Amino acid sequence: MKFIPNILSSFRIFFSLFLIYLNPKKLLFIFIYIICGISDVLDGLIARKFNVTSKLGAKLDSIADIIMIFVILFKFVPTMVLNLFMILWFVVIFFIKIGCIFIVFFRFKEFGMVHTYMNKLTGILIFIYPVLNFFIDCKTYIFMIFIVASLTAIEEILIDLTMDSLDLDRKFYFNIK
Questions:
Q1: φ, ψ for residue 173 (rounded to 5)?
Q2: How many Cα atoms sit within 13 Å of 127 on the Cβ side?
Q3: What are the boundaries of each domain within the chain?
Q4: What distances in angstroms separate CA 159 from CA 58, 104, 163, one per listed residue?
Q5: Which of 134, 8, 6 has the alpha carbon at shortest distance from 72?
Q6: Given Cys at both, which of 19, 47, 157, 170 links 53, Cβ 3.0 to 4.6 Å?
Q7: Would you give the distance in Å from CA 48 to the centre of its chain?
Q8: pLDDT tier at 125 (50, 70, 90 boundaries)?
C-alpha cells in the first residue's frame, strides 16, 4: 500500500504526456483525461487514509499536476478565443505561479507547490474545462477560472513569502491550527 500513491502519480505523468498526441474532441482523450483526474484524487486519498504520505509523493503529485496543466494549456489555449486583456491576465497568473515555484526553491532549497484549498479548487475548475468543452462552448466558464486562478496565485505567493518553514500541505493563507 505504501507505494500505490506514488505509482498513481507516476501513471498520471505518463498518461498526461500521452494526451498530447490525442485529439481533445475525441472520446479516447476524454476517457484518459478522466482517468488522470481520478488518479489525482485517489493518490492523495490513499496516502492520507493509510498514512503513507511522503515528500517524494508530494513532489510527484506536484510534477503530475504541472504536467497535466501544461497539457491542458497546450491542447486548449490555441482553440480559445481570448482578447488581449485575457491573454495578459493569463500571462500574469502564469508568471506568479512560476514565481511561486522559484520562491519555494530559493527560500527552502526544495521543489514544491503548496497544496491549498484554493489550488485544489482551481485544479478542479481547470479539470472540468476539457470535459465541459467537449459538449458546449465555455467562454464564461474560462472567465470564472481566471478569477479563481488569480485569487489562488495571490494566496500562494503570500504563503510562499511568509511561511517560516516549508509546509506543502498548508490549506490556506490564514492557517487555523
A1: -60, -50
A2: 20
A3: 1-79, 80-177
A4: 17, 10, 6
A5: 134
A6: 47
A7: 19
A8: very high
Quick one: pLDDT at residue 109? 93
As a whole number of angstroms, the distance between CA 166 and CA 26 comes to: 41
Of 177, 159, 168, the residue nearest 53 (C-alpha): 168
Question: Judging by beta carbons within 10 Å of its beta carbon (0-12, 13-18, 19+), is residue 69 exposed, middle or buried?
Answer: middle
pLDDT per position as a tens digit, 31-72: 999 999 999 989 988 988 999 988 888 889 889 988 998 999
pTM of the model: 0.81
Give the DSSP letter string of 8-66: HHHHHHHHHHHHTTS-TTSHHHHHHHHHHHHHHHHHHHHHHHTT---HHHHHHHHHHHH
What is the amino acid identity at position 28?
L
pLDDT score recorded for residue 97: 94
For the four alpha carbons of 104, 150, 119 and 76, in that order, the dihedral sign comes to negative
Given a contact cutoff of 8 angstroms between Cβ atoms, the answer to whether 152 and 119 are in contact is: yes
